[in-house]
Amino acid sequence: MGGCRRSTWILRASAAVSAALAGVLAAIVVGLALGPANSWAAAGAAPGRARAPDPASGTAPPAAEIPLTGALTAPGGVAVTMPPVGLSIEYSVMAHDLGPGSCPPAALTAELLRLGSPPLELGGVSQDMTAPSGVLPATPNSWEAATLYPLPAAFWSQLHCLLSATRDPLVAGLNMRTGNLAWATQMVAGAQSAAAAGVSFSLGNEPDLYGLPNYSSLAKPPAGEEAAAANLFLQLAAYLRGALGGAAVIGPELARPAAWRNQLPRVLRQLHEQTVGVHAYPLTACRSPREVTVKGLLSAKAGNAPARLAWVVADARAAGLPAVISEANSASCGGLAGVSNTPAAAVWAARFVLSALKTGFREVRFHSSGEPYDPFIVRGPLLLARPLESALVALNEWLPVGSSLRTVAGVPDLLATAVGRPRGGITLILDNESAEARSVVLESAGSVRIAVLRPGRAGLQTAIRRPRGRRLRLSVAANSLLVASTTR
Known about the structure:
Blueprint: H1 27-30, E1 64-67, E2 78-79, E3 85-90, H2 91-98, H3 106-114, E4 120-123, E5 130-131, H4 143-147, E6 149-150, H5 155-166, E7 170-174, H6 181-194, E8 199-203, H7 225-240, E9 248-254, H8 264-271, E10 275-280, E11 283-284, H9 294-297, H10 300-303, H11 310-318, E12 323-328, E13 331-332, H12 343-359, E14 364-368, E15 376-379, E16 382-385, H13 387-398, E17 404-408, E18 415-420, E19 426-432, E20 438-443, E21 448-454, E22 457-465, E23 471-476, E24 480-486
Parallel strand pairs: 1-20, 3-4, 3-14, 4-7, 5-6, 7-8, 8-9, 9-10, 10-12, 11-13, 12-14
Antiparallel strand pairs: 2-17, 15-16, 17-18, 18-19, 19-24, 20-23, 21-22, 21-24
């Protein structure tokens, strides 16, 4: 779980849950006004064009004009080939969420459908602490046996009921630290019986931390440590592959990919994966919870963290493989209440996913471990969504498979991303990273659907706005995202 080796399979009491997600956008929330055409506007102006301020007057420049036309999504954008958002869930959390019945609560099924049936990965720290049902002694005879998590007997059949309804592809993590081939074989059979839309496997969780209890305190690994750890991982992976047959593999699920930067190309060659998966957490609540603040989460450093892993994408491409961020969230070790479970997490998630896609990653899987950063929690028949969940739903709607996205240049003080939708139409994502509101004028022949994510209000606020004289003036609030989509 992002380098934190705590035993998190025991569910903790959840922090405060978010307010209801849906709602009609009021003008006071969006802060937008429809004004008459300005005399300085030029019909057909290039994206992001704005007149320079008058040096003598000292006035601010007028709002940038952006025409919502096909010119925004010219060839050369980033293709969306997978749902941009997936889920990574601890085994114990999934077992809890499946409930006591033969099938899971209807609310859980509805939530996965609401998210667009994205890939569902079972892993995290519990991956290397999970044993198949029925294999552990009734009375533990060792420390290891006492700390392992036995899967409930009905787990795979319950999961099959869920996946049959939602059609989420399944990724099942295998316990590598125990290294029991018979257990791995049993887990593979269970996962294959549960899958309804494809299954692949992950061999161990964060192997770069194996056997290094004080690794997090080291400025860098001792000489030869990287190669030795990679060698051990490859030996264990080759052993466990005997349980997989020809099943697809994702990995190596590194907590800190930079620790294996010199070894990753060799690992990819020898592991014979189908997908390169690494973990990424911009902040850590493990050793430095003081750095986990709303301000830190909304910083450009946190939002653009995937760009620092561009070399992982390059190594994956050199091996002819796609790369995903297979586990991520706001802060490692479960996040921090008051930050990870606030609306600021939704703004951060949107920025993080856009950065990941532009860097070359195909998908980001958000982690759930029974901690404050979980996007939703299940309590009996009820599912309670936190603010982060609204961003995950929105991202899969804004960036459907088959779309393409590209950065729009020349939009002052805003990061603008244009998305060409596969069935036609344009979505424009405007990100204001500053502490002051910014104005923009959109040019559109028809109505525009507006959606807003703000750090001070939970949920996605939406509205339909009709331009006046083909012009729609908007104000993007501080540290917020405003998304405009053409309607039919």
